[in-house]
Design a protein that fits this description.
Largest sheet: none
Radius of gyration: 23 Å
Number of strands: 0
Order of helices and strands: HHHHHHH
Distance between the termini: 48 Å
Strand content: under 5%
Number of helices: 7
Length: 78
């Protein structure tokens, strides 16, 4: 019985971590990139401006920290 379970587990494991799943994952990434019109690259500036850039420009994000402290807490980032 244990041998059968190990065989089934091995077959499933080989599929999940094998070439077919890798092709599905990469294919899905390429498909979603094409469907969203390369959102990751075309909106990179907006993303950086409103996430990392806002730490240094928006005072309401860092108002709970000291004047010399340019970091935010994990709760402020949430």
């Amino acid at each position: 019985m244990i041998g059968l379970i190990e065989t089934i587990n091995g077959a499933v494991n080989n599929f999940v971590w094998g070439i077919p799943m890798l092709v599905l994952l990469v294919g899905t990434g390429i498909l979603m990139t094409a469907l969203t019109k390369v959102f990751q690259i075309s909106h990179f500036g907006y993303w950086m401006k409103h996430t990392l850039g806002s730490i240094f420009t928006d005072k309401h994000i860092t108002k709970h920290t000291g004047a010399e402290d340019k970091s935010i807490s994990q709760f402020q980032s949430l």
